[in-house]
Amino acid sequence: MLIWLCGVRYIPHNRVGVIEKYWSFVGSLKHGGIIALGGEAGFQADILRGGLHFWLFPWQYTVHRVPLVMIAESKIGYVYARDGEPLLPTQTLAKVTASNNFQDARQFLRSGGQRGRQRSILREGVYAINLALYVVITEDMVLSGPMHETDTRKYALWQQQLREMAGFDPVIIGHGGVALQQTTTDPSTQADVKLTVTDTVGIVTVQDGPPIESGEIIAPEVKVTDGETDHHSFQDPEAFLASAAAAASSFRSSPTALLHQPLVRHRRNPHQDDDPHRLRRRGRGLLRRQGP
Predict the structure, then answer these.
(1) Is the dihedral of CA 271, 67, 114, 112 positive or negative?
(2) Element (H, E) at 5
(3) With a threshold of 0.70, does the pTM exceed it?
(4) pLDDT band at residue 104 using 50, 70 and 90 as cut-offs
């Protein structure tokens, strides 16, 4: 008790400490923010890692011990930000902002990070994340931190929706986990031979970005021009949307300049950066597995 009154706090190495400040000479947060960047009262942007920490007096601070975020191998985690800039009217998901995989809340907010569901995902690994700012949704749990919200059912609903569409697994273009077999006859031996069909096509429906032109049902191909970054088969959402905006502008100025989206020859590796959030643009595109 004496150590606690002296402001000493211990954080286990499998947890992080989220600091809540009761009062401050700087004052309270303004403009609807919930994360303090300048020492104001409220939840602080910086977290405590494992070990002993001092000068956290109980009459001024509470330290909430929350677990590290762990994403299992070959799985995906999704992130929702409670604070930040609002989404634009045309946005569905928040833009990608530099934040060391959401582990630097201060950088996220100062770099213009947006509140809401994020385009960026978490790949397999362990992350030290401020759960006062973020909610992390994994296949097994929803990590919402010390924040008390009136309706937490929405996170469980999002988790259920992602489970139903296998959203926590990488996107694999191939046989899709179910080998389709057909039987034929070898003309040289007249023996029955079973063939396994593995060359399949993935159709991409995108829910963010500029709309397709009136009368069109398939989005034009998003081509990379000089100075632009390739979106790597829909895996880089920022590059995709930047190229899509440029393509839409080009289409309006020259309607014959673009063609419909062709088949994209592509082999999916489950260890690559697969992100269902990144398979997004209003319209449809196609992915096709490259043959062996």
Answers:
(1) negative
(2) helix 2-5
(3) yes
(4) very high
